[in-house]
Q: What sequence folds into this?
């Protein structure tokens, strides 16, 4: 099974500053035949279900603010929030959907305001 | 409005059974693959099971294989999770989610239903 590891586990950033979350997979999630990275990012606010932010490692879901961006390839990925807003306080998860299940999630990164 | 609504959660004794349902609306249910994902209290997300569009392909996490069965009724726009031989460690909020066929990122989620095994 592919293991997804996020860092840090928690992060405190000032409003308006950049927040960066890392996600590493234990094996590549890049499918060579289509050059796509099978990696998604989700946001979960307290008491709410997860919300898809990014898929294919860098494609923003419809309606997601452009301050959210995803990057990386192979085994190393990053979610960046360019200018933190109060409503971005949440737990963020990466998830692979490469090849066969299980489609494992990272352990989550809790983002707070400094 | 695209919507998924779970039901069927509750309190059950160890060794017992429950059947969760997920009612879909606002989209062509039969065109999407569906998943169950769970979250134990204060913990992270764990993928549980997947079913393809016509129900012919199913997959399970090792932790539930042989105990849980995913199914769907496309005529009723409903996804199911039959959970047998429940254990304390199955206690969680269970979410249903949809994904495009083959590309299993989950773009729509229900609000979840709580299962407590005690």
A:
């Amino acid at each position: 099974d592919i293991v997804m590891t996020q860092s840090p586990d928690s992060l405190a950033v000032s409003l308006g500053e950049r927040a960066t979350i890392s996600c590493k997979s234990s094996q590549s999630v890049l499918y060579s035949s289509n050059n796509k990275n099978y990696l998604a990012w989700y946001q979960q606010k307290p008491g709410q279900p997860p919300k898809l932010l990014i898929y294919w490692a860098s494609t923003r879901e419809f309606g997601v603010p452009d301050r959210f961006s995803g990057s990386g390839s192979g085994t190393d990925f990053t979610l960046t929030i360019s200018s933190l807003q109060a409503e971005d306080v949440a737990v963020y998860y990466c998830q692979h959907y490469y090849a066969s299940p299980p489609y494992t999630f990272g352990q989550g990164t809790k983002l707070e305001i400094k | 409005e695209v919507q998924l609504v779970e039901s069927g959660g509750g309190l059950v004794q160890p060794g017992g059974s429950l059947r969760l349902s997920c009612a879909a609306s606002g989209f062509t249910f039969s065109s999407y693959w569906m998943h169950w994902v769970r979250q134990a209290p204060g913990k992270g997300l764990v993928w549980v099971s997947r079913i393809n569009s016509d129900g012919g392909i199913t997959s399970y996490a090792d932790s539930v294989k042989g105990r849980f069965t995913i199914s769907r009724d496309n005529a009723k726009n409903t996804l199911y999770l039959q959970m047998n031989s429940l254990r304390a460690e199955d206690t969680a909020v269970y979410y249903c989610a949809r994904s495009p066929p083959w590309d299993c990122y989950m773009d729509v989620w229900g609000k979840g239903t709580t299962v407590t095994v005690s």
Remarks:
- Chain A touches chain B through 25 residues (CB under 8 Å).
- The first strand of chain A starts at residue 4 and ends at 7.
